[in-house]
Amino acid sequence: MVDLFGRVAILHSADDRTRMRRHDREIKDQSEIKGLLCDSQFGFIATVSENQPFIHANFFWYDEKNQRIYFHTALKGRARINIETNPHICFSVAKMGRLLPADTAIKFSTEYASVTVFGSARIADDPSEQRYGLQGLLDKYFPQYHSGDDYSPITDADLQRTSVFAMEIESWSGKQKMGGS
User: Fold this and answer.
1) Element (H, E) at 81
2) Which of 13, 27, 112, 160 is deepest in the core (most CB within 10 A)?
3) Which of 138, 148, 158, 145 is nearest to 70 (CA)?
4) Contacts by 35-43, CB closer than 8 A, 24 or more apart
5) Tens digits of per-residue pLDDT, 21-39?
């Protein structure tokens, strides 16, 4: 894959987009990064249109097998238009831990962990991939319900009512702060 700067991007390698200033907060264990992507309930998708950034929260699921993030939006709207115009997106998840009071105002802080992912999004136009992406969302958020038993399976008509996106992951980084450091 080629990144925004025309360089060959290697999956999960540090590049200018993911290089950390605070190496002491970097999550180096790839399984921890994958765990945050799997466990987070929603993520933030950043797109750009005519040099204006846009960000919105969305449900998603991380497809570890294919190294993709799937999400869906309306058939018409800013996210779809932005991605069709410029497929390079940024995606992020975060979780907050304890609030950390201190003796001085500048040292107040919080525990957190976050992942930022860079890549290209595309509209999944193959019906089998659309079903796969949507079923992954259902399985993540409603694991207790099963297609065909608890609800009707995804139909062709359903696919015509939504845009399913696949984000091809080019690089990512994880960051965390635990305790008072």
Assistant:
1) helix 78-85
2) 27
3) 138
4) 36/93, 36/95, 36/113, 36/114, 36/115, 36/174, 37/62, 37/69, 37/93, 37/115, 37/117, 38/62, 38/64, 39/95, 40/93, 40/94, 40/95, 40/115, 42/93, 43/69, 43/71, 43/91, 43/92, 43/93
5) 655 556 688 888 899 999 9
